[in-house]
């Protein structure tokens, strides 16, 4: 397969050794070359699969999933990625386990990992908790490997935490790269990451945070727009600003959806909850203050309600670059008149972009598979070449 | 393996090209040759497995299961079929997903299908809904493939809907064929699909409907028997009548269990709910009229109670052909004095047929596997031959 | 791999033919050679995996898990063992199945087993029920195979019952053997299986029973210690006494934790419920006497409370052999001041032994895999040799 040679050549030019044997928590902990390597391997795996070449590199092994929130697409993306590489998914359903009965994170992490090569965790519910939990799991299995308890250290993949959502934003980015014909064409492109109205409160911050943390690395002009009171984590804004400075792009903020949309090449209108409110909620949960939570939720809904004009309409789309900005969403979207009375996006806009939106989502399993691949192989070029040469059919032909 | 040559020869004589790349919804949408091909491939796969030959044709891929009702045997049959061919089962548990949160069928169908080769759906609860839902899923992934969202289109297999239960009735038929030594011996055989009393209301109509829709294609005399008021879907009765006319059999109805049993070669006594009542119930659910549902259920139980004499007893069995009709049931049966006070079948009858009943069920995984096989391979003969030649042991010997 | 030759040689010297085609219910139903063969194969499989050699012997097949109680480690151990050998795990979740709707054990066992090679069952809740249930399942599938319903008979593995917990105690024993450098060094070693205080009632008896039933076969001096009123099954004590006589060890009882700990080489302090109380509880459940159960539980908690001094403290550890006994627990432990106010073990003791405890647990997947391996292969030596020669990498290298 000639194109695999191209991917291998691209990898040869990158310094991605830091991915081997490590976890994937936050995109901004990874170098530009490492991020690039993930995109490259994702594309290579997709190319092989599209050509009916099996990329099953594991003969056995478990991919453990921990979902602390309902999930369809991430669950299936993780399952698809594991299956593609040869791992069987085993869900750690905390309701069915003895975790409540006095087990520590350290203990559980080791107990489930004797045969595990990957642990995928989604834990985005509580500010200050999700990412911390993932790192605790990671440290536990690292120690387990060191002490000879585990024969192999399962890598931890962040399937969404309170800070970042790397598998989502990298799938988004893969979609952008494909749309614009290559990462080299992104310089100067304008992307609007904007808040949008939703009749539900408490949507995670990981997407807007992850987007400004990642998209500022490609020389793009990234604008974060939201009504006053919907601030995100300051530390991530700092990351975005530093990225922009280092990679020759821009990062700016505005309280106006229209300003962000003006001449934008890409728009990502999506609801989220104010960081401060989410932090408060975490505290209330910690105190089992359910009255307080109810009160807070009521306040948040009322606060949202004051910003129903933050909707991605056809009129707003018209002021984007040539009226043709690429519309993004992590899905499911709150579509006005469809899934709710008033929502994040007008139905005609959503309908027009449905097919590209689904394509955007289609990158996620490959991004996850690439993260695992690069975490497990020191020389992915050699493995990709062998797979391409072997040409074992995925479906017997 | 010489017998594989026989199966291949049988397939060579059949025109089953219409199965390739398509779904399996209703048996009467398939031609006689196509139905025959499913039986042939099911037998071939069973023969290979019995000889410890692996028929794993997928190196990776997901088989997605959607069960909108509790299920043991169909769940395990689907899991077994997928596993046999090399697919990993991923359950779309709607409780664990975000489906409730505003996702459309179209969206979910695509989101779970990036790595999916098959989607098996059981949705038999509501009249007018189940089959419709399956077709919506099918259309969504067909469009997804067309638009380049999906690299492959997962085929949809009907694991039971409001109209038909093709994997059940074809397993039943495989059992009948084996019992009578070949489909060619079925001409003129008499089968009684009869209602039977059960202390529960609301049992699905898919089995009686599926049975009269399928069994009328083999030159058999099919009698549908039920008390007045337990009518099934008219459109399916029409299918049965047309089949009988086309394939040289008979289709008749009677309100007498004894009449149906008289000289029957095969009896299939099983409870079901009146179609009209089920239609009414669907409407009540649509209106969230839970009072109305309770009332309806009470009425249905009372109505059932007037027909406790519809029980498959030893006396009734005696009037079948030589007193030896093949007794069928899709299981679990309501056995009088065992699983309930008064039920569908007398304990001695059930006990005498326990072993054949379990054999009847044993065909289902192979029927499902054959449907997938024929949906995925344009030239199944070539693939079967390769598997037989390769002789890769299922269990290392 | 030279070491595989050693394992094969060890197997050559053992008479373990009785394992082939059989289930694994209780360790004391197996001969010394058979037990030894399980340890040997477990080590061999671990050695191969550690050397990145795939031991996937199944190309397809299901491993069915039935958990009638919450479980983390046993669930993952079973999943890991099945996956290691090539089986896909399919959970029989009784809540999602139709088992409640009139299916018998015999029927369900056959219905789920058409493609099953193993059934792992955990059912330890009710005295007199768990092991009985497993044997009913076993008998059902044995009959299913005999009658031609099943093409293969799935073997039943006891993942914990009311009598024994063989996969746990054999993992414990594998850990002991490794710790002391070989089974041949265990002669005369003193092991204390003692009760310990826990703020929860009703912990299963299977571990203490399993421990005295297994550890008495290695020439060790086994002491069972518990407060009066915490008696275990008499029949298992009898097994222990007979083992001690036959294998040249000792089995004794004492109502003093300190006496048991004195000069012990190994200590296993763990809470359990009195056998008589558990038997009573089973009766109460049978009668749906929930008032009676509540009352019993209250009494049990009060009874436990009178024995808070049964804690594995540093002071107690000091009186063991050189103050360095190997501390064992099946996990999760009730750690004083950590998972509860007062518990089975002092935090410093637990912390000091954390790493060995996790290693102890790490043997379980291999023990389960070895049980399956020996149940499926008449000549495991030949299969191990082939795997070692083939050297198919578990993770593509």
Essential attributes:
homotrimer; 397 residues; alpha/beta; Rossmann fold; 15 helices; 46% helix; globular
Explain what this protein looks like in three dimensions.
The structure is a homotrimer of 397-residue chains. Mean pLDDT of chain A is 95; it is low at 98-102. Chain A folds into two domains: 2-164 and 364-390, Rossmann fold (3-Layer(aba) Sandwich); 166-361, Rossmann fold (3-Layer(aba) Sandwich), CATH 3.40.50.1370. A five-stranded parallel beta sheet of chain A has the order 7-6-5-8-9. In chain A, 46% of the residues lie in helices and 13% in strands. The longest helix of chain A has 19 residues, at 32-50. The two termini of chain A are 17 Å apart. With 397 residues, chain A is an alpha/beta fold. The A-C interface holds A 57-62, 64, 88, 90, 92, 96-99, 101-104, 107-108, 110-112, 114-117, 144, 147-151, 376, 383, 386-387 and C 46, 49-50, 54-56, 67, 70-73, 75-77, 79-81, 83-86, 88-89, 331-335, 338-340, 355, 358-359, 361-362, 364-365, 392-396.
């Amino acid at each position: 397969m000639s194109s695999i040679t191209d991917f291998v050549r691209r990898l040869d030019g990158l310094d991605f050794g830091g991915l081997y044997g490590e976890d994937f928590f936050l995109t901004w902990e990874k170098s530009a070359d490492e991020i690039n390597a993930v995109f490259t391997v994702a594309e290579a795996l997709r190319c092989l699969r599209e050509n009916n070449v099996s990329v099953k590199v594991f003969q056995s092994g478990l991919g453990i999933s921990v979902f602390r929130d309902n999930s369809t697409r991430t669950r299936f993306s993780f399952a698809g990625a594991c299956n593609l590489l040869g791992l069987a998914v085993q869900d750690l359903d905390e309701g069915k386990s003895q975790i409540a009965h006095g087990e520590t994170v350290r203990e559980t992490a080791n107990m489930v990992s004797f045969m595990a090569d990957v642990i995928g965790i989604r834990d985005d519910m509580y500010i200050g908790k999700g990412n911390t939990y993932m790192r605790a799991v990671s440290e536990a299995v690292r120690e387990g490997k060191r002490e000879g308890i585990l024969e192999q250290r399962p890598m931890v993949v962040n399937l969404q935490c309170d800070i970042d959502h790397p598998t989502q934003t990298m799938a988004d980015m893969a979609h952008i790269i494909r749309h614009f014909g290559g990462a080299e064409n992104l310089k100067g492109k304008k992307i609007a990451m904007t808040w949008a109205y939703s009749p539900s409160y408490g949507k995670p911050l990981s997407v807007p945070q992850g987007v400004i943390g990642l998209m500022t690395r490609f020389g793009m002009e990234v604008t974060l727009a939201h009504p006053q009171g919907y601030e995100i984590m300051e530390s991530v804004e700092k990351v975005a600003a530093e990225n922009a400075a280092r990679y020759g792009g821009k990062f700016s903020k505005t309280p106006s959806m229209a300003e962000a949309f003006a001449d934008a090449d890409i728009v990502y209108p999506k609801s989220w909850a104010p960081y401060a409110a989410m932090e408060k909620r975490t505290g209330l949960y910690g105190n089992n203050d359910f009255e307080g939570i109810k009160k807070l939720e009521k306040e948040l809904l009322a606060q949202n309600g004051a910003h129903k004009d933050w909707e991605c309409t056809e009129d707003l789309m018209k002021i984007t670059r040539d009226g043709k900005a690429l519309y993004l969403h992590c899905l499911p979207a709150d579509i006005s008149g469809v899934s709710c009375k008033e929502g994040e996006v007008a139905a005609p806009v959503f309908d027009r972009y449905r097919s590209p939106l689904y394509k955007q989502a289609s990158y996620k399993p490959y991004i996850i598979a690439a993260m695992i691949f690069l975490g497990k192989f020191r020389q992915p070029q050699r493995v990709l070449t062998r797979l391409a040469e072997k040409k074992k059919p995925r479906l017997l032909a």
